[in-house]
Amino acid sequence: MAASNDRVSARKPQSGAEFEGGAAGPSIDPADVARFSAQAAEWWGARGPFAPLHKFNPARLAFIRDQAAERFGRDVKTRAAFSGLTLLDVGCGGGLIAEPMRRLGFQVTAIDASAENIGTARAHAEQQGLDIAYRAATIEQLEAEGAGPFDVVLTLEVIEHVADPEAFIRACSRRVKPGGMMIVATLNRTLKALALGKVAAEYVLRWVPAGTHDWNQFLKPDEIRMMLLEESVAVSGPFGLAYDPLTDRWSESDDTAINYLMIATRD
Fold first, then answer.
1. I need a surface site. Which of 22, 23, 77, 189 has the fewest CB within 10 A?
2. Closest CA to 138 of 41, 13, 265
3. Backbone angles phi, psi at 72, to 5 degrees
4. Do residues 26 and 163 lie in contact, with contact meaning Cβ atoms separated by under 8 Å?
């Protein structure tokens, strides 16, 4: 596969895409939804197909917590530091982010196009005694209903799986409340990401099932910035996350060639 610097193009919109359980909208890519739905029961298995996310999660959570604390003037050492703030987790999967966000005090709404994922997430949250508003839905549905807006909108490792990345991320940004923020996490479309984030992760290390990612759908930071140009948000980043094989840990890094995050704030 040859590398390209051309802007990533949208997949053919799935305008008629609709799934049992209520999720519908043009951002849905049926193949990706089906792929994750087939593994829905394994989200919370630390040694299953989502094991890499369990290792990845502490670094993501620390970044979100610290950025939100700075934005809203909260002390992360206090119990339920973000009490009184609302958060929307778009593409929540099995709830690996939604649950710790609820424990931090956020009032959490979490959506996913896969009804199977939502079923797993809801069942696990109930076992933990956490009140999270889970729903099989898309961001387009929430926008059409006028849901929100929210203090924080998260979409983590989701945009590279949708049919129309620009329409998706713009819709997410419009659910951010004035004074709020959106955090986007994805993979960079670089040769390093092709070699390590795609080929090595899927076919050598077997961190994720083969076919999980399409390198052509990875996005460069400037592409996300351009997608949000016409929205009333200020975009900052990228902020890198890198893996250290010596410690077997992820941490924030200046290296944005593979995994990175962007922040969009609305004043």
1. 77
2. 13
3. -105, 5
4. yes
The rounded distance, in Å, linking the Cα atoms of 220 and 240 is 12
Q: Would you call 130 helix, strand, or coil by DSSP?
A: coil
Residue 263 tokens, joined: 């922040």
> For the segment 211-249, what is each residue's pLDDT rounded down to a tens digit?
566 768 899 999 999 999 999 999 999 999 998 888 989
CB burial readout 25-50, b (16+ within 10 A) else e: bbbbbeebbeebbebbeebbeeeebb
Residue that has been written with the tokens 């893996």 in this structure? 243
The amino acid at 108? V
Six token digits for residue 74: 């909260």
Question: Regarding beta strands 176-187 and 259-265, do their DSSP bridges make them parallel or antiparallel, or are they unpaired?
Answer: antiparallel
CB-count burial class (<10 Å; 0-12, 13-18, 19+) for 65:
middle
Q: Tens digit of pLDDT for each residue in 20-46? A: 446 666 665 666 556 555 555 678 887
Number of other CB atoms surrounding residue 174 within 10 Å: 18
pTM, two decimals, is 0.83
Could you give the CA distance from residue 27 to residue 15 in angstroms, rounded to a whole number?
A: 8
Q: Any residues with CB less than 8 A from the CB of 20 and at least 6 apart, and which? A: 115
